[in-house]
Amino acid sequence: MIFSSIFGGCSSKQPTGDFAFIDKYLTTWDEFAQGNNGLAPVVKADARQFGAELTAALNKADSRAPSRFVFYAVVQVGGFIPLDSELGRAFHERVGDAVPIFTSDKDGKQRYFAGDLYFWWEAHKSEFVPYPLYDDWKRRDFTTNVVLKMYESASKNHK
Fold first, then answer.
1. CA distances (Å), origin 58, targets 2, 24, 41, 95, 122
2. What's the domain range around 87?
3. pLDDT grade, residue 157 (50/70/90)?
4. What is the enclosing helix (H) or strand (E) of 138?
5. What is the pTM (predicted TM-score) of this model?
6. pLDDT tens for residues 54-90?
7. Which residues lie closer than 8 Å to 123 by C-beta, 6 or more apart?
8. 114 located within any domain
9. Stretch among 75-79, 89-93, 143-147 having the lowest mean pLDDT
10. Are 67 and 128 in contact (CB under 8 A)?
11. What is the DSSP-derived secondary structure letter of residue 99?
């Protein structure tokens, strides 16, 4: 116990690194989603580094990573994250089959849908470190009046 308190133990829920780039990218995505279209080149240019850093955090079981993963999808409103991407695989390794995986009728590809991620997060958020920007997003008028209603409708349609 003394060793654990001095050295932080070996819990996989310990934060593992700096989330400055991840959080900056998500803030930029949020501003872009709110209508700052001039940020599109930044969102595109930084996507690869963001994905790599968030994937690494998920692979290290950093307890801050799931909230950022969910926010990344929900800030895109009807966003999808491919299961076969590095980011999707890392999230799946972290949560297993806890989140439904959407299979497209059109191309058969499997993806995480933002609405399913939203509902999973709301049921499991006490298990992880929250992300303040997600909490801010959730309180916005557009989110409560449009996005969440869309997620509820979509959820009913594919269950």
1. 28, 17, 26, 10, 19
2. 20-157
3. low
4. helix 132-139
5. 0.85
6. 999 999 999 999 999 999 999 998 789 999 999 999 9
7. none
8. yes
9. 75-79
10. yes
11. S
pLDDT over 60 at 11, yes or no = no
Q: Give residue 74's pLDDT.
A: 95
Asked if residue 50 is part of any domain, the answer here is yes
* Residue where the block lists tokens 């959820």: 155
d(CA 118, CA 122): 6
Average pLDDT over the chain, rounded to whole?
Answer: 87
Residue 10 falls within a domain, yes or no? no
Q: Residue 112 — φ and ψ, nearest 5°?
A: -90, 125
Measure the N-to-C terminal CA separation of the chain; round to a whole number of Å.
46
CA distance 75 to 34: 9
Question: Which residues fall within 8 angstroms of residue 135, CB to CB, at 6 or more apart?
Answer: none
Give how many domains the chain has, as a whole number. Answer: 1
Residue 141 lies in a domain: yes
Percentage of residues in the chain with pLDDT exceeding 90?
A: 76
Question: Cβ neighbours of residue 92 under 8 Å, at least 6 residues apart?
Answer: 83
Q: Where are the alpha helices (DSSP H) in 60-100?
A: 65-74, 86-95
